[in-house]
Amino acid sequence: MIKAALGLVGVLGALAVVPAASAEGNSDYSVLIISRERLEVATTCEIGVYLNDQLSGRLFQEQSTSFNLPPGPVDVRLRLLPGQVPGCAPGLENQHNQRLNLQVGQINKYRIAMDHDGLHLKRAGLGY
């Protein structure tokens, strides 16, 4: 019995030395949320979200995506992607970037809209 108690105390002492995991700590990032929740883009085609010229997300109607990014500038480009939906063949389109400046700890929400210049992001309220 005494050996079991000493063994338990030894194990508890060893666990006290190991640092506990924490969700706090380094939060040096910004959150970018891009949504296609509204019917502002009158197409059933999938929209590709490119961050710094790299395909990072794909959105159909009523979807959203989020990214944890380092602070600083990020170039965002949106384009229609060819897919299995009829009428979504690749074609010529205006491919321009929008530069967003992200701050540490900031949550940025944008929604996808379309006008005569093509697809672009509009700032949206967080809604909470």
From TrEMBL:
Residues 1-23 form the signal peptide. It comes from Pseudomonas reidholzensis. Keywords: Signal. This is Lipoprotein. It comes from the Bacteria. The lineage of its organism: Bacteria, Pseudomonadati, Pseudomonadota, Gammaproteobacteria, Pseudomonadales.
